[in-house]
Fold this protein.
Amino acid sequence: SSVLASLEDTLSDAPRATEYLGRLLARFVEESILLLQEVGKLIQEGGEEPGYLIQDGIAADILGAVLDSIKSDKGDSFLNEVKSTSSLKLVDFRPQHLKRSKLDAFM
């Protein structure tokens, strides 16, 4: 969670940090180390304050990268199974003011 707490600062130095973090978290889901729901909770609680990553649109990019990586690595059926067994509401990770996000493809 400390990685997520400082993610905003990291993005200025490494703009693809959300993609890399998403790939890492996807791997944890693929290997049954974490459930997608647990990944969602980490993202929701991450940032300088809980909810900050969602407000800033970073959460949508991270979760979008997680789902994209799972789809690429394991296919649509595995992705659909992971999504259906979690109680995540993808819309909760996307702020209203955001025009486009990596998460949109999975909503």
